[in-house]
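Hi there,

I know you've been waiting on this one. I reran it after we fixed the sequence typo, so this is the corrected version. Both the input and the resulting structure follow.
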Amino acid sequence: MGTTQLESVPEPKYWHLKTVLNDALDSEFEVGEILPNERDLAARFGVARATLRQALEQLELEGRLQRRRGVGTTVAPPRMGVSVGPSANAWPGAGPDAWDTVGCVEAVAPAAIAALLGTGPDQAVHTIRRARVMRGQPVAAELLYVPPASVPGLSADLSPAAHAPAVLRELHALELEGEDRAVELGSARADDAKQLDRLPGAPVLVVTSRYYAGGRVAAASVSTYRADTCRLTFGDAGAFEVTHHQQESRRAS
């Protein structure tokens, strides 16, 4: 990694430094390699550590770097194409579903979710926590919210192990009329960060989905994806992979 003069560059110093670091990741570092510490990097490029941190944070946001507990900052592998839904509408947990159920409780939904579901502010809903793993690493955590009105046939005395399967079974009995999704950038909350093996506050992609049946929202989910490893795809695009071409060329040479 060579040095560069940043003082005369009209764009923000951290942004130009990010570009220089990005080129270095392609030419000098391997996937999984640990970067030098902040003090050494700041000295090498002649910038303040605050400027360096901004550049590193931007590279993490773009999926080029990963911060790992007990390890440090490492070069991230190319993002995985993660399909957030099949080309045809389907209930969560129906058919070939990529999620594993972690648990299920009855709890009051967050205000924003209660508004989506049309439930009262103090009404408990069935809340299923699910997890998604790809290539041996956790890539997403999900909370699926199902109001009691959507599963009226559910038994009142279910064991903890039978709770989630019973809710999904009742939900699948409804005719799914449609679904929609919204994607936004967010920061990992403490519980999601632990499940995703990330640090709290790490950048994540948040997908909020609504499922319609009987002319209303019958269920809603909030899926939190690791922004450093995931490239969200829709329909049949999940098989399409994006790689860092310079890295691939260097490894092949």
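Quick highlight: The radius of gyration is 22 Å.

Best,
R. S.
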